[in-house]
Amino acid sequence: MIDDVIRQQLLQPLMDLLKQGVTPQRIALSLALGVTIGVSPALGWTTILCTIVAIALRLNLPAIQLVNYLVYPLQLVLLVPFYRLGEKLFHAAHLPIAPPQILAMAKTDLQSTVAFLWSTTWHAIVVWAILAPAATAILYFILELLLRRLVQSQTAVGTT
């Protein structure tokens, strides 16, 4: 069941792109950047960032956006680790993550709370920007290898 869903929803569209002449390298780059940008702690900006990158690098826009949307749960899971790493990197105050704590801060001093949240987010974005190139490179090489093997296996199946 899950195997069929993966095959129909992920592998078949990739194979269709490959049949259209899109190289495994271009697809791998689209997917790797979609993941890396998709987990950015800049909530609400990943669709725009993926679009800009796809247009600038002439990558497959549907592929990069699909991956961007698929990694949204991972983006949420990684928010707190990015926040914590940003706090460590910048020796910043610890952000209370619980919504009641943030609401209490906002009720006490809204302007300071907004500034604090912005600072925490900015620090997290810096951490992400430091880690993103290596993560993109690793993902690219893994995906490119897998896609080349997929093309080879499909070519072998088609010739027999």
What does this structure look like?
With 160 residues, the protein is mostly helical. Helix 2 runs parallel beside helix 4 and helix 6 packs antiparallel against helix 7. Helices cover 84% and strands 0% of the residues. The longest helix has 50 residues, at 110-159. The protein has seven helices and no strands. The protein has one domain (2-159). The chain is elongated.
Class inferred from helices and paired strands: mainly alpha
Biggest β-sheet description: none
Number of helices: 7
Oligomer: single chain
Order of helices and strands: HHHHHHH
The helix content, as a percent range, equals over 70%
Overall mean pLDDT stands at 86
Q: What's the β-strand tally? A: 0
Q: Whole-number radius of gyration?
A: 20 Å
- Could you say how many structural domains there are in total? 1
Low-confidence stretches: none
Strand content of the residues, in percent? under 5%
Distance between the termini: 27 Å
Q: So what's the overall shape?
A: elongated
